[in-house]
Amino acid sequence: MRRRYKKGTGTGIIVFVVLCIFGIVAFGRIRLEERKKELDGQIKKLESRIDEEKERALDIKNLEAYVQTKKYIEQMAREKLGLVYEYEIIFKEEKGD
């Protein structure tokens, strides 16, 4: 007595394994695409932050140059120390009751 195997059994197993592998690959691809979107968002944030820092560095450089000018020194002497030139007249407001 010989046993006869159905031809569909081996083929069915192969198809099942191939479908499982396909499913795993598809799921992995979806996860990778989501991760790529997250990383792209981080890249955009970091690039905008770099631009902001470049602007800030330029502002600091300009301020550094301004601080070295005579105009800035004069302004600070007037505001902080209350100094004036000899030829200037100072008017003060009277405080009345």
Describe the structure in your own words.
The chain is rod-shaped and about 115 Å long. It has one domain. The chain is mostly helical and 97 residues long. The model has no long low-confidence stretch (mean pLDDT 89). It has two helices and no strands.
What structural keywords apply?
single chain, 97 residues, mainly alpha
Number of domains: 1
| SS element count, helices | 2
Number of strands: 0
Q: What Rg is obtained from the alpha carbons, in whole angstroms?
A: 39 Å
Low-confidence stretches: none
Q: Tell me about the biggest sheet? A: none
Order of helices and strands: HH
Shape: rod-shaped
The proportion of residues forming helix, as a percent range, comes to over 70%
Structural class: mainly alpha
The CA-CA distance between the termini, in Å, is: 129 Å
Q: Work out the strand percent.
A: under 5%
Summarize the structure.
This protein is mainly α.
Q: How would the blueprint of this fold be written?
A:
Layout: H1 7-67, H2 70-81
